[in-house]
Amino acid sequence: MNLEAQVAGTETLSVLETAALLRELTAGLIEVTDFDAALVQLVGLAQAAVAGVAWCGFTALRAGEPAGVAASDPALAGLDDLSDGPDTPAMSAIHRREMIIAEDLGRESRWPGWTARARQAGVRGVISAPVDVDEQVIGAINLYASTPDALTTRHQLTAMLLAEHAGLLLAAVRGRERRAAEATERDAALLGEGVVGQAIGVIMTQRGCPAPEALEVLRSAATSLDIPLREVAERLVATVARPREG
Length: 246
Hints:
The protein is of the alpha+beta class. Helix content is 54%, strand content 14%.
């Protein structure tokens, strides 16, 4: 869909509005390391920042299977998940790789089951825009209106910007999530590894602290001395094992 052509000569977002929206999204997600938490942050920020949008949701798939869902209003979360089947605006956007728009659900014949549930929940219009996260995860961001014909060309442009920026931010979250998991695995291995494990035990005894904190003490010492972690551990264990004079 050539959205640029559609908005030519019509209402558009101002530079300041666009910058403010993207800044809020970035600030809200820049340090998040949990993907599900990031989705919750995203829909809450989007709903609050975009005028005329009553609710916002997100549908995520990993390898074609449900991977996450979030809604700015928990009462509408069922509209974003796939528990009642894939016949939804979000899945249409994901499968067709283009924005899906329904200005008035009262005139909508697509997704009949979903539309009935949406109207019962108070939804009267929807825009779903596909979001590419990474090679494993794709999704759609869903903007909902509480009155018919409230979603304009302006909202379509906003949805496009949200989808593009959200994809980049969520990809970064996924990267941080993977690195955190890898670090946890490495720490678990270190806690039981030979001389490093012994050194951690020494620090735990001396300081009365748990193993993760002892490991951080060991890491801090290695950084300060600019020597490998294993060498610091060997020195500590050797020092403790050395018999005291006198």
